[in-house]
Design a protein that fits this description.
The complex is a heterotetramer. In chain A, about 40% of the residues lie in helices and about 20% in strands. The N and C termini of chain A lie far apart (about 50 Å). Chain A is globular, with a radius of gyration of 20 Å. By secondary structure, chain A is α/β, with parallel strands linked by helices. Chain A has helices at about 5-15, 30-45, 55-70, 80-85, 85-95, 120-125, 140-155, 180-190, 215-245, 270-285, 300-305, 330-335, 360-370; strands spanning about 1-5, 20-25, 50-55, 75-80, 100-105, 130-135, 160-165, 175-180, 205, 250-255, 260-265, 290-295, 295, 315-320, 345-350, 375. The longest helix of chain A has 30 residues, at about 215-245. Chain B has one domain: Pyruvate-ferredoxin oxidoreductase, PFOR, domain III (Pyruvate-ferredoxin Oxidoreductase, domain 3). In chain B, about 35% of the residues lie in helices and about 20% in strands. In chain B, strands 2-3-1-4-5-6 form a six-stranded mixed β-sheet, covered by helices on one side. By secondary structure, chain C is of the alpha/beta class. Helix content of chain C is about 35%, strand content about 15%. Chain C has twelve helices and ten strands. In chain C, the strands form two sheets. Chain C has an eight-stranded mixed β-sheet with strand order 2-1-3-4-8-7-9-10, sandwiched between helices. Chain C has a two-stranded antiparallel ribbon with strand order 5-6. The longest helix of chain C has 18 residues, at about 275-290. The radius of gyration of chain C is 19 Å and the shape is globular. Chain D is of the alpha+beta class. The longest helix of chain D is centred in the middle third of the chain and has 5 residues, at about 40-45. The chains are: A alpha/beta, B alpha/beta, C alpha/beta, D alpha+beta. Chains A and C meet through β3, α3, α5 and β9 of A and β1, β2, α3 and α5 of C. β9 of chain A pairs parallel with β2 of chain C. Chain C: It comes from hydrocarbon metagenome. Chain C: GO terms for molecular function: pyruvate synthase activity; thiamine pyrophosphate binding. Chain C: It holds the Pfam family TPP_enzyme_C.
Chain lengths: ~375, ~180, ~300, ~90
Amino acid sequence: MLKITEGSYAVAEAVKLCRPQVIAAYPITPQTHIVEALAEMVANCEIDGEYITVESEFSALSACLGASAAGSRAYSATTSQGLALMFEVCFNMAGLRLPMVMTIANRALGAPLSIWNDHQDTISLRDSGWFQLYAEDNQEATDLHFIAYKVSEDHNVLLPGMVCFDGFILSHTYEPVDMPVQEEVDGYLPPFTPYHRLDAGDPISMGMYATPEYYMEFRYQIQQAMEQAGKTLVAAGKEFSEHFGRDYGSLVEGYRLDGADTALIAMGSVCGTIKDAVDEMRDAGRKVGLLKLRAFRPFPEREIVAALNNVNTVAVLDKNISLGNSGAAGTEVKAALAGSGITVLDYVIGLGGRDVRKRDIARVVDLAEKGEGDMFYGLRTEVL
Amino acid sequence: MRELRIHGRGGQGSVTAAELIAVAAFESGVYSQAFPAFGVERRGAPVQAFVRFSDGRVRLRSQIYEPDYVIVQDSSLIRNGGVFDGMKEGGIAIINTEKPPSDIEAPAGVKVITIDATSLALEVLGVPITNTTLMGAFAAATGEIRMDALEKALRERFRADLADKNVTAARRAFEMVGGAA
Amino acid sequence: MMQVEGKCELFEAGHRACAGCGPALAARLILKAAGENTIVVASTGCMEVFSTPYPETAWGVPWIHSLFENAAAVASGIEAAIKQQGRSEKVICVCGDGATFDIGMLCISGAFERNHDITYICYDNEAYMNTGIQRSGATPLDASTTTSPAGKCSLGNKRPKKDLPRILAAHGAPYVATASISYPADFVKKVERAINTPGACYIQVHAPCCTGWGFDPGQTIAIGKLAIETGLWVNYEMVDGVVAKAKKVRRKPVEEYLKAQKRFQHLFKPTPKTEEIAKIQAMADANATAYNIDIKLKQERQ
Amino acid sequence: MPLTIGCAARPGKARRNLTGSWRVFRPVFRPEECTKCGLCATVCPEGCVIETEEGTFIPDYDYCKGCGLCAEECPAKAIEMVQEEK
């Protein structure tokens, strides 16, 4: 049913519908509304699960790791510094091949301290073995939770997943969301069946150490699981559209790419602004389109190559910066399109909550068409 | 798509006003989007909140720079400047003040509606919280939200006795501005 | 006398601990006490490494290792999960003193404050043995380790051991105990009591390390006994924050304990550091008073 | 054997590792002097001292590392450590 609600509450409602058994989370701006709502749901027995009020994000994810290992569906949410504090557990959980879903209300990393949105937090964990999905709006943020649990718990995948949605820009925005009912979600997302679990009836040792004779093979296994996650995401996204009518059957989403000379590439909520800007530019006769990356891990290289085979120029908008190199998506798109003859330019944009307007998108396209790029876009040169 | 910018002070309920106007708009049959100017402002500091209204899903995520409508929760905010920035020709500004519209220095082409929301809120609610009153004025002045939809939104947000008072405040403002408009 | 179950050890032979390893004995005794209906959560450390090189696990019960410092948080999640699932297993953390006293304090404090139904057992060998004998918050005063070496200007570790049992008792832990592998029956009894006490319980078991402390592997039990007989280690129980029982001894001078270990040799050679030894003796005396451990002879009482 | 997902393993595999090869000194048990107290089995860090049908004890030399704790702690002094090779 379509209802108007805050993004955080939509996510909390989606999480509730996924029937989490153990929730462990630590409050941090701008994630707080999600965990407050979940705590209330547990307090009112709307969620039949345990809510652990941990003393740090590090413990939040550690507790989720334990819960998942014991065979329960686990959930957490965090952002920015909280995610950074989880760094070690993130790698560990993926290596242990324990499923769970975590919502990230994307936020910049300090210093300087910033509570505002960019993607530096999750991008910094792209190598951790978690699959990463980025939502454009609160409908997508809601829906991706059902898909993420299904994929994470699939025995061919067994990797944890992050559903990333932009802090404040989505988390604190009221807008209409079509929220499924419990029966519909139950029909799509089966109960968690652990591949193996800590169980005195069938003992197993988890988290052993691997000597050089084994370590690489275990890492290769995770890499294969990540590739499988791509396929399972597509399948689960298609199945989702059969159940709910909204299609997530691709790791990327093209918008008005037909006949486009210049393609923008972006992730998250800025894609909405870009779509409006593309419409205006198309109305003005400019051949511009958008390729939205819904998944950043696994990286949808094949899909990107296929979607962009007719464009001349690609402008990648990165709400992150790999300091000492360039934006993460820009670097990877360049690698994906190497040898294609397509010019790929990277624009670091919207860091730390800097607003991105339609006119900024148009200016980026201007720059790209002139061949100017690989830059921080929109710097206030007067303060430099 | 039409856009509303609300100017207020921390603690005056600007964010709640934006949310409830968005809810009422949705109930009135349009797609709406409400969000605050995300900040760390404390009580008393100038704050902004935004609402968009559209016949289709709202995709735009930037802040609002060229509003069709402005609500000013406290006329003292005018002297700081900026409340009318970027307002569209034919736009409507709803200002909480005892003064008549002619006393407000607004850009040409902007229709100014004034309402003494503070006195009305004090009379009906017993506290100078003006956001629900201004929502009623907004409904009457713009037609973006129906009064019955606003009433529904208020009743969903506030518990029974408080809801009654807020509905009364909104309705009184709606009638006052409706009469004037 | 304890039951002997040579053929069905839950902590199996084939592990790679040093010959004469105190912690290995602790692990065996823990599982003897806890039995099969147990989930063990381990920290990174000596025991984890010597017992679980893939795929050769020595653990006959469900066992998980995540990181160095998060065992108590992982256990919190496991406990919540099995409670939610209506299962009956007991959750036990088995972690070294580095993981417990130092890097894991945050997670432990949180888990104890929330009072999860877990038993946290610290096998205390008084330094980071896995990485080559570096000091921890559990290293005793004047012990020479690789990061607190005795030297021309140093007498070894500068501070006495942190009083972790009292810190955890102050969290409201219903049962806190210290034990020693040198008194296996007592240790086993305490583990049984802890796992059967609802809430977060703590046991700190003294587990001498022949390699790190510098003594002959055959002396592991004897060294542990000397720690108790000199009053430098006290075996006691705290129930709801109150010391309920402490093992009484006829105390020996601390020199007997110190002299037997290489880590304290600098207190005797080249010349005896009498004043420093007196400080350590004073610590033992203070322990004796605090826990009332001295067995008094009849004449003395008169 | 294919790798287990997540570097996990079932119990029983440590016993593949025959730590008896570490031994330099071997405990020799003299059952005739044994008081059957079982302390040797209790204190063995390997858990490789086994009770016989007679109630006396023998070490499992496949795993015994020769630490000598059993000999040291035996109240009857019924265990002697002897060098493996001279």
